[in-house]
Specification:
This protein is an alpha+beta fold. It folds into 2 domains: 95 residues, Phosphorylase Kinase, domain 1; 211 residues, Aminoglycoside phosphotransferase (APH), C-terminal lobe (Aminoglycoside 3'-phosphotransferase, Chain: A, domain 2, Alpha-Beta Complex). It is built from 12 helices and 12 strands. A 5-stranded antiparallel beta sheet has the order 1-2-3-5-4, sandwiched between helices. A 4-stranded antiparallel beta sheet has the order 8-7-12-9. Helix 9 crosses helix 11 and helix 11 runs antiparallel to helix 12. The longest helix has 19 residues. It is globular and about 60 Å long.
Amino acid sequence: MDFDKKYDRREPTTDFSQAKLQRLLCRSGYEPAGCIKKLSGGYSNLNYLFESKGTKWILRLSGKSVREFLGELSVLEQVETILPVPRVLRFETDAPEVNRHIAIMSFVEGVPLSQTEDDLPAAAIESIARSLGYWMAKMHQISFHTSGFFGPGGEIVETFTPFQEKTYHYYQHLLSEPLLAKRLGSETLEKLARYIEINRPLLESLPAVMNLTHSDFNQKNLLVENKSGHWQIAAILDWEFAFSGSPMIDFGNFFRYDTELSPHYEQPLVEAYLANGGVLDHNWKAQGKYLDLLSMMQFLTREGDYPRTFATARKVIENTVE
């Protein structure tokens, strides 16, 4: 699945000079050998691959707030012995060479699922789906004392409780945004408002709302590897939007483009999820689609000009509320 055709990048296309990156890494205690390579895939961050003393590392440049940046790193620290994630070796806020927060992370071998799934046979997709279900179950079993957003040290610094009530009120807030009306049109906006109201029981019946939720759980953030003929998840990347909330958000995100997905994902993923301790209601897919509307509505209330992102969000909303 080609996400570059669906979304615009928010991070400016600024490419920092090799000299600046070299100075930054040397000051951080690394001795980069050869070219520092910019990687594709990041939509709001920049990622570079470099080698030092025979080992590959990732340099991540973040333009997020300090809270969001440190929140992401705290999640990675909490889950590094539980889930397949990169390890954070060093970080710094407002590195002067690049005027961004930076983190140096371990490099994980693998290929983004988005770049390979279209070429894989059914058996490989089913194997990946089982691996996905296993790791999603492990992730969603990590629970917290409340819903909300992470800050330094893994503390929840912005609570979102009670989850169902706050989420419903956030829907109403987004529905009142002038940019949403402008970009959706009055007819679709009315359908959306009606859909949110009629299907509110999907929100009220969520089985869990204080669990680790990745919140950007899709093929571009999943590395896969073929290990001795067995395809599996190598790493779950980009935790910048992670929070304590409803696991159904991750299901809604992954199955957002279900008509474009291989039909060999759903059954093995769900079976593995349930077999490894995950909890799903009978209407889990409808719950996921309901919650996924939040992201689409947020996209459409974003300042600036992001034509691909806006077109994608409109299409997802229209397909959901029809």
